[in-house]
Amino acid sequence: MLQVDSITKRFGGVVANSEVSFTVEEGQIVGLIGPNGAGKSTMFNMISSVFPPTTGTITFQGTRIEKLPAYQVAPLGISRTFQNLQVFKNMTVIENVMVGQHMQTKTNLFGMASLLLGITRKERKVYDQAMSYLAFFGLQDIFDQKASSLSLGKLRLLEFARAFATEPKLLLLDEIAAGLNHKETQEMSALINKVRDTGVTVLVVEHDMDLVMSICDKLVVLDQGVKIAEGTPKEIQENEAVITAYLGADIDEEEVEEEAI
Ligand SMILES: Nc1ncnc2c1ncn2[C@@H]1O[C@H](COP(=O)(O)OP(=O)(O)OP(=O)(O)O)[C@@H](O)[C@H]1O
């Protein structure tokens, strides 16, 4: 479904990604992991056309996308969430999801505005569809609450629901579990699996190792812009380079903390 081929991205003298290649097969959940500054967000931004790579190609279902603007990439079926949440705080929960549907339904903005004003037209079905998305994410009971009143956990679910409402083929989740407690993270894992079961392919950037190890079919590990490993969660957990670069760092930190206690 997605082929990232020899991608390099330079910001002046900083090489954020260097000759990175990997693939995402249809129906997979793939995790992009690595320590801080490894180049994960930069890779996500190139796949979702926030900016182009310096060199290399990105192919989505046979179409080269690395030089396309975001407005041309999204309709191909790529949607994403943002770590620093992009929900509209002064809109209600359902309005946020309806904005996500806008591109997919081709309802024009005037029609959407009419709906938001309570005018019943054929756009009613957009509303009903939005409610079904909210139910999928367990947000139906708070459909009319302002996004500004939501907890971080609910905001992350709303961000997820809005991206899902565009009916993507490939969904990029950028640290969707950041700041969530253990129970919320487990619920998020279950939801990501549920989304995949609807036929959506998922690429996640995530720091929560329990989450990625439990849900991902494959992991791609970056360190200082370079791909150092690719494989199943089990293979990655046993990979020496990964243990040194990433998991080892976590273990060391835990040991230091324990010693301090
Ligand atoms: N717009 C930019 N201009 C200059 N340097 C940048 C820019 N964006 C990222 N970088 C640099 O590129 C490198 C990779 O950053 P990136 O944010 O992709 O890493 P990351 O793996 O997502 O890190 P984190 O886990 O902390 O979010 C870092 O050295 C970062 O400082």
UniProtKB/TrEMBL annotation:
Stored InterPro entries: AAA+_ATPase, ABC_AA/LPS_Transport, ABC_transporter-like_ATP-bd, BCA_ABC_TP_C, P-loop_NTPase
GO biological process: D-alanine transmembrane transport; L-alanine transport; L-isoleucine import across plasma membrane; L-valine import across plasma membrane
UniProt keyword ATP-binding, yes or no: yes
Pfam families according to UniProt: ABC_tran (PF00005), BCA_ABC_TP_C (PF12399)
Sorted UniProt keywords: ATP-binding, Nucleotide-binding, Transport
Superkingdom of the organism of origin: Bacteria
GO cellular component: a single term: plasma membrane
Gene3D superfamilies: P-loop containing nucleotide triphosphate hydrolases
Single GO term (MF): ATP hydrolysis activity
Start and end residues of each ABC transporter domain: 2-249
Keyword Nucleotide-binding assigned: yes
PANTHER family (alphabetical): AMINO ACID ABC TRANSPORTER ATP-BINDING PROTEIN, CONSERVED COMPONENT OF ABC TRANSPORTER FOR NATURAL AMINO ACIDS-RELATED
Protein name from the UniProt record: Branched-chain amino acid transport system ATP-binding protein
